[in-house]
Amino acid sequence: MRKQKGFSLIELLIVVAIILIIAAIAIPNLLRARIAANESSAAASVRTIATGEATYYNFYSGYGSLAELGTPATGTCTTPSSASACIIDSTLANATSTANLKSGYYFQAAQTAAQQFDIEARPGSSSTGIKAFCAVEDNVVRFVSPDADLADHDTCVGKSAIGN
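Above: the chain sequence. Below: its structure as C-alpha cells.
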C-alpha cells in the first residue's frame, strides 16, 4: 500500500486550535494598544488646542472656539482672522462630535469667563478610549473617566494631571 502525502484531519485541527489560542491572547492586547494610542493622541490634541488658545488670545484678546482656531471652510488659510485663525489643523477643528472623530475622540473648546477657557476631549465609544481629557489656561492636561461631568472650568482644575 502506498503512503499518502499531506496532513491528516487531526493534525489540521490541532494547528487551527493553536492559531485560535494565539489569537485569543493577542487580540485583547492589540485592542488595549489601540486604546492607549488613541488616548495619547487625544492628550496631545488637547495640549495643541490649549497652546492654540494662548496664541489666539495673544492675537485677538479672547479665547476662541475650535472653528475659530482652525482653518476656514474653504480649507486654505491665506489671511488669518478671528473667525479662522489657522492655528490648528482642520481635522482637529472639525472633530466636534461622535460623527467626526479624530483618533477616536471628539473635542470641545469654549471661553468660560473673560480670562478662562475649557477644553474637553471625550472618546467616541468605549472601544476607542477609556479616559476623557480636559485642560484650562494653565495648559495642564488632566484626565477623568469618560462619564465624569466636565461641564465647567473649576471641575477640570480639580482633576488629576497626566504625567507631563
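Helices lie at 9-60, 66-69, 90-93, 153-157.
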